[in-house]
TrEMBL record:
Lineage of the organism: Eukaryota, Viridiplantae, Streptophyta, Embryophyta, Tracheophyta
UniProt similarity note: Belongs to the phosphohexose mutase family.
Organism the protein comes from: Juglans regia
Keyword RNA-binding: no
Any single GO BP term: carbohydrate metabolic process
CDD domains: PGM1
Gene field: LOC108998598
Name of this protein: phosphoglucomutase (alpha-D-glucose-1,6-bisphosphate-dependent)
PANTHER family xref list: PHOSPHOGLUCOMUTASE, CHLOROPLASTIC, PHOSPHOHEXOMUTASE FAMILY MEMBER
Entry cofactors: Mg(2+)
Length: 557
C-alpha cells in the first residue's frame, strides 16, 4: 500500500489525564488534532509493539467516532501495523476492548470514548490506548506520547479507502488488513467462564424478582439485550434506554444518583423493582440499586469480595488479593483483613491495578467512582459488576421455594455492615470551577499538610497524619506523587481533596469524606446526616467557598 507523509505542526495541550485524552469534540475535529496524537503514540511505542502487529479498535458510539475510526485505521496502516480488529459500527465497550486484546493476543488497542462525559457536537470526545495485557497505558508511555506531540512534524497515512464498518469480515489492503468483529462475542464468552449463568438465570427468571438495567443510551445498550435478555432470561422490557446514541439521548451517561435520575426514580418509586443497575458511556462503570436502596461503590466492591468465593465460579479457590483506589472507603480493607488477603491502596485511575494483576497479586478491586472489576480483564467492568451482584443475590436465594420472600440487596448490605461495621462515605464534586481558584486551594492544602502535626485538633477530631498521597508500585518500583491531599484522623475518619483528571473544561474539585461506624444501631442513619460534622470540617479546612466561590457541590454521591 502507498503511504503518504503529511506535514504537521505540534499542537499544545495534548496531555492525557486520569484516563486518556479528553477534550470537546470540536477540539478533536480541528485539522490533524487526533492524527497528531495517534502519530505521536506510534512514535512513542517500540516498533516491535506494533510493526506487523495486531491492534484492536472500538468505542462507545459517540459523535465523531465514525470519522475518528477511519483516521486511526489509516494512520495505523501508515505506521506498519499488520491488522486492525474493529468492533462492528466502531462499537466496543472499554471492558470488551480489554477482553478482545487478551483473547486475541493483540499488541494493544484504542478506545474512542470520553467515558461518562456527555457526547455530541457541543460536548466531549476522548481516546484511550491500552497495552497488550489489556490494561490502560502506563504513565511512562503517556508521558512519552505527550512529549512527542510537542515535536511532531509528520503523519504517516496509508492511502486506502474508508473501511465499511457495518459488515463483519476481513478486508485486505496489501499486507495490511481490517477485520470487523461482533462487539459482544469475545466478551460474552469470557463472562460465561467467570460466572455461573445457570445460577443467574434461576434468579432472573423468577416471577417474584424484578430486574431493570439502564444502558443510558450508551455502549452497554449493545450488550444488554444479548446478555441479560437472550442469554440470561430477563424480560425485554427490563432494559431501559437500550439503544446507543451519538449524544446519549442528550443525557449525561454517568451512573450515579444525579445523572441516572430516570432509574433512581423507578427504584425509589412505589413498588419499585428488586434490582436496578446502570452503566456509563463506555461500559466500565456501574451503579447497583435495590428497591429504594443505593449501594455505595465502596461498599459494593467490599461485598463482592466477601461473597465472591461462594457465588462466582471464577473465584472458587478464593481471590488472590484485594485493592482499592486511595479515596475509596476502607470497607474493602476490613474484608481483606478478615479473609487474610494481600491488600493494596493505589492512586485514582484503573491503570495502577494492572501491574498487580499481571503479577498475580490481585483479583478484585474497585474505586468509589462507580468502578468495580477483577483480573478477568484489565479494566473496570460495569456488566461484570452487575452479574457479580446478581450472582450473590441468586446464591442467597437458590434454595428459596416459590412464593417465599427473597433475600434482597438491602438485606445483603445490612448484613455486611453488621459483620464488618459501616464505612459512611460521600463525595462532593464541584464541577467546572475556575482553574486558578481550584489550583490555589490545593496549594493551600499542600502547605497546610506540610505544617501539620499528629495530634492536632480539628474540631472534635484529632489528626493522625496528613499528606499528599504518593504511591510506589510494588511490582515495578515506579513512583507517582501528588495524588490527593488527605487528612486522616485518629478514629479512622478521612477527608481527601483532589482535582479531577478527566474533565474537558475548567477544574473539578472532588472532596471525599469517610467515617467508620462499628455500632449496628447507628447503621440506618442517612450518610449525609452521619457525615455532616466531617463535611462541615472539610469545607472549613480547605476554605473551599473562598477559593472557588461555590456555595454548593454540583454532584453528591
Ligand atoms: C474519574 C474517577 C476515577 C476513574 C476515572 C476514569 O477520574 O474519579 O476513579 O478511574 O474517572 O473513569 P478523575 O480524575 O476525574 O477523578 V472513566 O469511566 O471516565 O474511564
Ligand atoms: Co467509563
Amino acid at each position: 500500500i502507498k503511504i503518504n507523509s503529511i506535514p504537521t505542526k505540534p499542537i499544545e495541550g495534548q496531555k492525557t489525564g486520569t484516563s486518556g485524552l479528553r477534550k470537546k469534540a470540536k477540539v478533536f475535529m480541528q485539522e490533524n488534532y487526533l492524527a497528531n496524537w495517534i502519530q505521536a503514540l506510534f512514535n512513542s511505542l517500540p516498533p516491535e509493539d506494533y510493526k506487523n502487529g495486531l491492534l484492536v479498535l472500538g468505542g462507545d458510539g459517540r459523535y465523531f467516532n465514525r470519522e475518528a475510526a477511519q483516521i486511526i485505521i489509516k494512520i495505523a496502516a501508515g505506521n506498519g501495523v499488520g491488522k486492525v480488529l474493529v468492533g462492528k459500527e466502531g462499537i466496543l465497550s472499554t471492558p470488551a476492548v480489554s477482553a478482545v486484546i487478551r483473547n486475541r493476543k493483540a499488541n494493544g488497542g484504542f478506545i474512542m470514548s470520553a467515558s461518562h462525559n456527555p457526547g455530541g457536537p457541543e460536548y466531549d470526545w476522548g481516546i484511550k490506548f491500552n497495552y497488550n495485557s489489556g490494561q490502560p497505558a502506563p504513565e511512562s508511555i503517556t508521558d512519552k506520547i505527550y512529549g512527542n506531540t510537542l515535536s511532531i512534524n509528520e503523519i504517516k497515512v496509508a492511502d486506502i479507502p474508508d473501511v465499511d464498518l457495518s459488515r463483519l469480515g476481513v478486508t485486505k489492503y496489501g499486507n495490511f488488513s481490517v477485520e470487523v468483529v461482533d462487539p459482544v462475542s469475545d466478551y460474552l464468552e469470557l463472562l460465561e467462564i467467570v460466572f455461573d449463568f445457570q445460577l443467574i438465570k434461576s434468579l432472573l427468571s423468577r416471577s417474584n424478582f424484578r430486574f431493570i438495567f439502564d444502558a443510558m443510551h450508551a455502549v452497554t445498550g449493545a450488550y444488554a439485550k444479548p446478555i441479560f435478555v437472550d442469554k440470561l432470561g430477563a424480560s425485554l422490557d427490563s432494559i431501559l434506554n437500550g439503544v446507543p446514541l451519538e449524544d446519549f439521548g442528550h443525557g449525561h451517561p454517568d451512573p450515579n444518583l444525579t445523572y441516572a435520575k430516570e432509574l433512581v426514580d423507578i427504584m425509589y418509586g412505589e413498588n419499585g423493582p428488586d434490582f436496578g443497575a446502570a452503566s456509563d458511556g463506555d461500559g466500565d462503570r456501574n451503579m447497583i440499586l435495590g428497591q429504594g436502596f443505593f449501594v455505595t461503590p465502596s461498599d459494593s466492591v467490599a461485598i463482592i469480595a466477601a461473597n465472591a468465593q461462594e457465588a462466582i465460579p471464577y473465584f472458587r479457590s478464593g481471590p488472590k488479593g484485594l485493592a482499592r483506589s486511595m479515596p475509596t472507603s476502607g470497607a474493602l480493607d476490613r474484608v481483606a483483613e478478615k479473609l487474610n488477603l494481600p491488600f493494596f491502596e493505589v492512586p485514582t485511575g484503573w491503570k495502577f491495578f494492572g501491574n498487580l494483576m499481571d503479577a498475580g497479586k490481585l483479583s478484585i478491586c474497585g474505586e468509589e467512582s462507580f468502578g468495580t472489576g477483577s483480573d478477568h480483564i484489565r479494566e473496570k467492568d460495569g456488566i461484570w459488576a452487575v452479574l457479580a451482584w446478581i450472582s450473590i443475590i441468586a446464591y442467597r436465594n437458590k434454595d428459596k421455594k416459590l412464593g417465599e420472600k427473597l433475600v434482597s440487596v438491602a438485606d445483603v448490605v445490612k448484613e455486611h455492615w453488621a459483620i464488618y461495621g459501616r464505612n459512611f462515605f460521600s463525595r462532593y464534586d464541584y464541577e467546572e470551577c475556575e482553574s486558578e481558584g481550584a489550583n490555589k486551594m490545593i496549594e493551600y492544602l499542600r502547605d497546610l499538610v506540610s505544617k501539620s502535626k499528629p495530634g492536632e485538633k480539628y474540631g472534635s477530631y484529632a489528626l493522625q497524619f496528613a499528606d499528599d498521597f504518593k504511591y510506589t508500585d510494588p511490582v515495578d518500583g515506579s513512583v507517582v506523587s501528588k495524588q490527593g491531599v488527605r487528612f486522616v484522623f485518629t478514629d479512622g475518619s478521612r477527608i481527601i481533596y483532589r482535582l479531577s483528571g478527566t474533565g474537558s473544561a475548567g477544574a473539578t474539585v472532588r472532596v471525599y469524606i469517610e467515617q467508620f461506624e462499628p455500632d449496628v444501631s447507628k447503621h440506618d442513619v442517612d450518610a449525609q446526616t452521619a457525615l455532616k460534622p466531617l463535611i462541615d470540617l472539610a469545607l472549613s479546612i480547605s476554605k473551599l467557598k473562598d477559593f472557588t466561590g461555590r456555595e454548593k457541590p454540583t454532584v453528591i454521591t
